[in-house]
Every structure is written in structure tokens, then in C-alpha cells.
Amino acid sequence: MTDPRYVFAMKKAGAIVTDEGGITCHAAIVARELKKPCIIGTKIATKVLKGGDLVEVDADRGVVRIIK
């Protein structure tokens, strides 16, 4: 879940990935406005991904892959 306090970081991110949400959630709306790839509703992203992980996001397929 995101809120307006995260927008600064979202602007810097290459993509946005969340555990929860739908097509009208805050993260999805901000991602569309910023023209960033976004995968919402993963349920486990924050459990699997750690700070500093380098990931590849394929938003068309809904896939997040840890590179390093």
C-alpha cells in the first residue's frame, strides 16, 4: 500500500511494485501519471524483495525478477 508521502521515492524509482491494490489504487494512479511500469497486488513482494535488491520488472507479464 502506498500513500502520498511515498511520491518522492516513486518519482525516483524505475518501476513500482506493491503487495496490495487494484487498478484504481494510489500506486497505480501515480505510476500512470509518472509513466512508470507498475505491478500491483503481488501479495508477497515486500516479503521477498529486500532493500538494495536489483530487480527487473516486466509489467506487461506481471513478473518481477531479482537480478542481484
TrEMBL record:
Keyword Nucleotide-binding: yes
Keywords: ATP-binding, Nucleotide-binding
Keyword Chloroplast belongs to the record: no
MF annotations from Gene Ontology: ATP binding; pyruvate, water dikinase activity
Residues annotated as domain PEP-utilising enzyme mobile: 1-62
Domain of life of the native organism: Bacteria
Family: Belongs to the PEP-utilizing enzyme family.
Listed name of the protein: PEP-utilising enzyme mobile domain-containing protein
Source organism phylogeny: Bacteria, Candidatus Nealsoniibacteriota
